Amino acid sequence: MSDHTLQLADSIAKLHYEHDFYAHLSMLASAEFAFNPDLSKAGLESSFSGFKFDQRKYISLQQAAFEEGPKIESDENPDVDWEKIDKKVYAFQNRLYGTINGDLNDTRLKKFTDFSVKCYENCITYESMYPQSTSNPWQPVVKILECGRLLYVSDSLNELKDFTNNSISSSVSKKNRGNIGIVVKGQAPTIRGFVIDDRYDIQKIVYSFLRREAPSHESPVSLSKIQAYLKTLGYTWSIGNIQIKITTPLKKTGFVGSTSKGFFVIQTLNDLISSYRFHRTKVDSINTIIEQYHIRSREFGDIDLQKEFGGLTINRID
């Protein structure tokens, strides 16, 4: 790791960090599908009333990610170099402190620095424990740091409102109050953030539904049927929101698959192959489209499409 200080971004627009934070939470939540036997029980929906993704839940999922890692990772490293991790964390902390213009003992600022350092520590610790992992839950939040934004997480709506000068307001829906929220800070003193929605509760409900109604690729369930089922439980979500916030994250767990006919639980090799074949074709097509967009961008001058997307990396963090 280089010794120079980190850079902080000018923009803290929600679109620049929302996806990465939800990806972080999805990776943590998805671990439950590997080690929580209750999630395989049919009729599980009734147990989710009152579910909150609060600070306690957030901490417990982080602990579980480390403790239950061997169930979802294939290459546990028995010889983690803890001294090396400590040195890297210390070096990162010094880089971060060198970035800050202000009193490092300021309570509000310290919450940002402490949480950001902890995210980095968790990321490299998990990486050291499982070197071949492609699902490190802290990689997405380290990306937020790499893009020049410090972060802090809390389930206190009053604290979040205070940080953001009420831009996170009391208008947060009643069902989402008590869930954690994220606040981010860039170069400017302004702080922005949001409280997460109830997608993780609904993901579990849909997973239980698929276990019962779609136990293989031969009996898939369509998005419209999932939507209709959720409506019976009082969730009036659009097809688009279900796809983005529910079924796509479920597929990222590796336990749910899909084809053009619908969604199903992956329990056999044939289930896995069916879903893989469907997605491999889509990935090849998307890569072709992205490449063509990069070629066309030259017509519009010196433009960086990745920067326009909001994912420009301005810090090297390793």
Question: Can you offer a commentary on this structure?
Answer:
With 318 residues, this protein is mostly helical. The chain has two domains: 182 residues, no CATH class; 111 residues. Helix content is 50%, strand content 7%. The protein has eleven helices and five strands. The chain is globular, with a radius of gyration of 21 Å. The termini are close together.
The major pleated sheet works out as:
3 strands, antiparallel
Instruction: List segments where confidence is low: pLDDT < 50 over at least 5 consecutive residues.
Output: 46-50
The whole-number mean of residue pLDDT values reads 86
Q: Estimate the helix proportion, in percent.
A: 40-55%
Helix/strand/pairing class, anyone?
mainly alpha
Count of individual beta strands: 5
Number of folding domains?
2
Summed up, the helix count is 11
The radius of gyration is 21 Å
Strand and helix order: HHHHHEHEEHHHEEHH
Shape: globular
In angstroms, what separates the terminal alpha carbons? 6 Å
User: Reading side by side through the largest sheet, how are the strands ordered?
Assistant: 1-2-3
Strand coverage percent? 5-15%
Write a short abstract of this structure.
It is built from 11 helices and 5 strands.
Task: Compile the SSE list and pairings.
Blueprint: H1 18-35, H2 55-67, H3 82-99, H4 107-129, H5 139-146, E1 150-154, H6 157-163, E2 181-185, E3 191-195, H7 199-213, H8 223-232, H9 239-252, E4 256-259, E5 262-265, H10 269-297, H11 305-309
Antiparallel strand pairs: 1-2, 2-3, 4-5
